[in-house]
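Appendix B, record 7
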Amino acid sequence: MITFETVTKRYPDGTVAVDSLNLDIPDGRIMVLVGPSGCGKTTTLRMINRLVEPTSGRILLDGANVADTDPSQLRRGIGYVIQQTGLFPHRTIEDNIATVPLLTGWKRGRATSRARELMDLVGLDPATMARRYPHQLSGGQQQRVGVARALAADPPVLLMDEPFSAVDPIVRAALQDELIRLQAELHKTVVLVTHDVEEAIKVGDLVAVFRPGGHLAQVDTPERLLGAPVDDYVRDFVGFDRGIRRLSFFAAAGLDLATDTVLPAGTAHADAIAAAKHAGEPWLLVVDADGRPLGWAAVAELEPGAAGAALTEVGLAPVGHTFRPDTDSLRAALDATILSRTERAVGVDATGRVIGTTSYERLRDAIRAAEDAAASDAARVQQTAGEAG
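Structure tokens (predicted):
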């Protein structure tokens, strides 16, 4: 647990970077500090490892005041990842990662073994990259090395100061996914600074929103931050589309998928039209013999009187993006529906076989049910907290 007890940082020119901050960061969770430039989020991060000293207040790490620990010793027990990686340019990747273990007294062989183990963990091939130098790696690869180096001595706390902002959006998304995967395996206490609310919502277990002047506006889970911002400042900061983004936290498993308009190729036009009429649907999904989607057939274009006419792969509207109800969110299902010319989307299983289809109407019902469930859960939590108080 990292605890800020009424911490203030005031600079000699009178500027207040952080003002009376009280904040608890639970063990094994990712806490994201987010806010506009100059709001004190990076200063807050750097006070944890004493790169910046507070003017007043206390910062406790597992109950101990960090001010009572030698800064060098403190920093060796805290991983630190920065925007530009800070790699030593004349050291190999292997030696960069082994830096902190060697400083803490590890034998060379053990440190090297740990470096290669971590390279594999963050998705870098030790056999081909261990002896390379930073300039021989892409920006995304360098950032992975930075994360590996921060993890080398197995610190319980990992500080990350805008770690992914210097790479392109595709690499950034991949690195965010990598962080989520690593955290699921390692369970570190992570404090991450970003100016990007999308990143905060994606990777954070908890998000602390800062106001200008170093004041804390709200600390909450991403879902509650999107669903119940405390005031207009937070509401404006998280964005006007917060309702759509909140759907990322609702599982698509609750969708009632249609199956009666999923028909195999070879179905007679007359039978297809009858199925569509019974379901009240203008589109039919055509699948192959293995149940995989081939495309959408427009009912209006079918010929009920044509002898032997059957659904084929020819002339079908493209399926577009599919989604997996067992792993994806309602937002993924909505995105697939919006991008489909039929205003319908296809749910598939892990093998790509069709489970069923959705529509705006079915999504609307699922969203309402998810919102009602979330509201009930929030009310139950509030009641429990009131009874405990």
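Remarks on this record: The CA atoms of residues 79 and 151 lie 6 Å apart. The two ends are 22 Å apart (CA to CA).
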